[in-house]
Amino acid sequence: MRSLFNGDLPKLVMFDLDGTLVDSVPDLAFAVDDAFRSVGLPEVGEANVRLWVGNGAEALIRRALAYVSAEAGAAFFEQVFSGFLSAYSHCLADKSKLYPGVFETLEALSKLNIPMAVVTNKPIAFTLPMLSELKLSHFFAEVLGGDSLERKKPDPMPLETIMSRFSLQPEHVLMVGDSSNDITAAKSAGCSVVAVSYGYNHGESIYEAGADKVVSSLKELLRTDSFSS
């Protein structure tokens, strides 16, 4: 990480949530399938949901309905979307788990007094309870969901908003995410960006997406750059 900041540490690290800190697909898939069953549609399954995560709840449901049929999307969206929101609100962290190395990395950054924020496309009504249930809330000084502002990633607005709140210039800020949305937003905002290889990214390789660095675990940042001052 120091290599991205001329030997220094960043003054702020922003993290994506789904696919970066948390593998949330098992619970998302359960809620999608529950909503589909409630209107008599076939389940789409966890493997497909992994390909559709990353642009918010509405986009997830539209992709799932389109997978079933174009007619289903037109006829069932409102009912299925409402059912999904209800189901997911009751299973946010039933099967969702932190990826290996996440907690240790957040602890290390916290001990270095580096401020951290979450910038996700997940609705804020789901984001805050999930962070609480997974015992992550105390690490983050700021949290923005996909519906917190007028625009969400890949637009740079959420990242620029967080930087403004900390009165920081982008050259001192790092974004960490798992998808092209995170990379595009970071590049547009002028931030350095590290991508994780284990996330979702719509089923596409993250290595070709233009990140400054790709890691297979957040702990690689700790080992590679030795956060000690």
TrEMBL record:
Q: Which residues bind Mg(2+)?
A: 16, 18, 178
* Annotated InterPro entries: HAD-like_hydrolase_sf, HAD-like_sf, HAD-SF_hydro_IA, HAD_2, HAD_sf, PGP-like_dom2, PGPase_prok
Q: What's in the keyword line of the UniProt record? A: Carbohydrate metabolism, Hydrolase, Magnesium, Metal-binding
Q: Which reaction does it catalyse?
A: 2-phosphoglycolate + H2O = glycolate + phosphate
Enzyme active site: 16 (nucleophile)
| Biological process, per Gene Ontology | carbohydrate metabolic process; DNA repair; glycolate biosynthetic process
Q: Which Gene3D superfamilies match?
A: HAD superfamily/HAD-like (3.40.50.1000), Putative phosphatase, domain 2 (1.10.150.240)
Q: Which CDD domains match?
A: HAD_PGPase
- Any GO CC annotation of this UniProt entry: cytosol
Q: Does the keyword Metal-binding apply?
A: yes
GO terms, molecular function: metal ion binding; phosphoglycolate phosphatase activity
Tell me the cofactors it needs.
Mg(2+)
Q: In which pathway does it act?
A: Organic acid metabolism; glycolate biosynthesis; glycolate from 2-phosphoglycolate: step 1/1
Q: Name one Pfam family in it.
A: HAD_2
Q: What is its EC number?
A: 3.1.3.18
Q: Explain the purpose of this protein.
A: Specifically catalyzes the dephosphorylation of 2-phosphoglycolate. Is involved in the dissimilation of the intracellular 2-phosphoglycolate formed during the DNA repair of 3'-phosphoglycolate ends, a major class of DNA lesions induced by oxidative stress.
Q: What family is reported?
A: Belongs to the HAD-like hydrolase superfamily. CbbY/CbbZ/Gph/YieH family.
Full protein name? Phosphoglycolate phosphatase
- The organism's lineage? Bacteria, Pseudomonadati, Pseudomonadota, Gammaproteobacteria, Oceanospirillales
